[in-house]
Amino acid sequence: MNPTEFYKNLADDIRLKSILLIAQEGELCVCELMAALAESSQPKISRHLALLKSSGLLLTRKQKQWVFYSINPDIARWAQQVISLTLKENIDFITPHLQALHLMGARPERIASCCE
Amino acid sequence: MNPTEFYKNLADDIRLKSILLIAQEGELCVCELMAALAESSQPKISRHLALLKSSGLLLTRKQKQWVFYSINPDIARWAQQVISLTLKENIDFITPHLQALHLMGARPERIASCCE
DNA sequence: TAGTTATATAATAATTTTATTATAAAATGA
DNA sequence: TCATTTTATAATAAAATTATTATATAACTA
Question: Average pLDDT in the B5-33 region?
Answer without folding.
Answer: 97
